[in-house]
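Mods, move this if it's the wrong board.
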Amino acid sequence: MVKKILKRYFIDAMGAMAQGLFASLLIGTIFKVLGMIPKLEFLIKIGDYAQAMAGPAMAAAIAYSLKAHPLVIFSAAAVGHAANALGGAGGPLAVFFIAIAAVEVGMLVSKKTKVDIIVTPFTTILVGCGLAILVAPYIGKGVGYISDFIGWASLQAPFVASLIISVVIGVVLTLPISSAAICAGLCLTGSALTNGNEGLAIAGAAAVAGCCAQMVGFAVISFRENKWGGLLSQGIGTSMLQMPNIIRHPQIWIAPTLASAITGPLAVCVFGLRMYGAAINSGMGTCGLLGPIGMILGWYDKTNGYTADVTALNWIGLILICFILPAVLSFIINEILRKIGLVKDGYMKLED
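Not the wrong board. Structure tokens:
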């Protein structure tokens, strides 16, 4: 019974939610970046529309994974919108728990009466939106504590701060929490928005390093199970796809997390990387290559407050931190874990 419950909610539902998040919030951000290209500005509006549907997309995906009836799935969209809007930075986490509750209650009444078309959506939306009003703000507040911690860490010594932020934001990226929303809410950028705050520029760069370590790391160490499709879906999609496998085998998280603990300080203290692009890009990692792209845009957009010359060391560091080191470090660490029997074949296989 316990295994069935864990599979139903923390494997099937969570995996589906990750896909819903990517098909809305994350793909919308990609559209908005492409909209910066001259004559493609219309893509920004498309990105806005896609991002606005994050809550409904996640909730509908969860309902679908739970094999809900059509009316329950359609009704879940309203629940997802309410939970995501009221949950703040913890919106995705609020959607996860509240949508599951609403869907399960909705299924209790679905197709049980002759007026199903009224009873099912009424019940599903009443329960879901009611829970969103009562519970979602507190879930958001809990996630806010994580944000406060990152804000505190960014004011400490660069080495310590970059290590902590890289690990924490990287972990948050893989969890069903919006790392992009947290980074945006904290303004993890040294741009004009924060008056060139060096501490926040350091925090943003460390966040990029941590997110890239998770995404590239999982993409590489799971290659034998998932091949090229898995490499692309995780490497430029989202490492959240591995959450169901992490629930089963948490030790698979060791390699990417240790890699982020190494690349964060290297990015800040050795290569002098700073984030002066949009704060939301700090929490995107290699999703659509938005982490590195955000950093590059910040370097060359002088209106954002970045005045230092871009050096060869910066470029080398960007490539190493965002792509090469996460792959190499995660691979080496994971191979050690395989040799001692902690990680085995099939542990990171993505479900079709």
